[in-house]
Amino acid sequence: MSVLTDGPHFGGSLDDLRAARAACAIPVLRKDFMIDAYQVYEARAAGADALLLIAAALERTLLIELRSLARELSLDVLIEVHEESELAAALDARPDLLGINNRNLKTFDVDLGSFERLSALLPRGVAPVAESGIRSGADLRRLSLSGAGAFLIGESLSGSQNPRAATAAFVEALRPLAFPRANEFSVKICGVTSIADAQLCVDAGADAIGCVLESRSKRATDLATLASVANAVGDRAAVIAVFDHAAASDIVKARAAGATHAQLFSLEGAALDAVALPVIFCARIEGNGLVHDVQARAAGACALLLDGAGAATGGGGGRVFDWSAARETARGAGLPIIVAGGLTADNVTEAICTLLPVAVDVASGTESAPGKKDPARVRAFVAAARSAQRGSP
Prior knowledge:
Blueprint: E1 2-4, H1 14-23, E2 29-31, H2 37-45, E3 50-54, H3 60-72, E4 76-81, H4 87-92, E5 97-101, H5 113-119, E6 129-131, H6 137-145, E7 150-152, H7 155-158, H8 163-174, E8 186-189, H9 195-204, E9 208-212, H10 223-233, E10 238-242, E11 245-247, H11 248-257, E12 261-264, E13 266-268, E14 279-286, E15 289-290, H12 294-297, E16 303-308, H13 323-331, E17 337-339, H14 348-355, E18 359-362, E19 367-369, E20 372-373, H15 375-389
Parallel strand pairs: 1-2, 2-3, 3-4, 4-5, 5-6, 6-7, 8-9, 8-18, 9-10, 10-12, 11-13, 12-14, 14-16, 16-17, 17-18
Antiparallel strand pairs: 14-15, 19-20
Helix pairs in contact: 6-8, 9-10, 9-15, 10-11, 14-15
């Protein structure tokens, strides 16, 4: 929670920060024009967990000094930049969080393009905070696709007639951008080839839609269809571009079409952390173990999807593997586990109870024909998966 404590310009005070600290258990950040060490001590004394340092307001040496003092006092620091010229000093100060403000401090104009331009200049592994001008779920999606790891939203909430509802709407809009979700169970339906089927799956409660971009697959689609599906789904579900083998350039094109994630068995000529989207790494199960060295090949992935050996190109082969034999291997993979391979409404409960995955992935088990979803099977699968996850199959 970011609390304005500047009085002359914003009417805030440290009493506001103390009140916020007393009212909630989440971390509280002091947002002010911090230019002196005394203010850092003051922030800690008032109960702050973190503070804001604005690169434009501080010389490089002072920026680094205040950051070092904050670390001594166990305060995290969000360093904010507005222009390319400020990036080097901000990164030299080793911030806990790097913020990119879309508001021009000279004109106070807001342009989300500022985030897109500056985030492209950051080194790998830095997921910046997008600040200012965020007014809708569409804004969140746009900024997320440009690499935002978090969002600082103030005016849209404080100016709302119903801040509670406005906050809930933003949180809900963020949910599909995180797949699989931390501490929550998710359902992905793959092999979607039309807007109508995508809407059917989302209406049934799916958290993610998979579009296969492999021409050899029975469920193959193209970037134009993926773009139309992503536009129709909006903020209601993640949209995953599914490949068998892909180059980084393929994933960049999928991202431009609206994909929120990429799913693949191997990446050609690059490490997973070099691509433009979160990656779900796939491994096919054979006997009692994985076909390949999963931990080495999946470094940088957001999740590991387990599929049956000999699964069709792009998945959807309908082949069940030995869940019990794969259980220990899955637990030792060091990644959230997604289970695929021959799942249906009839067997998804056993798969969930055996492997305890964070998500399940189905294609053929919800179809009337390859690439064509059956409404009854879609609804039955989602209902069975949700029921099993709740422990009441």
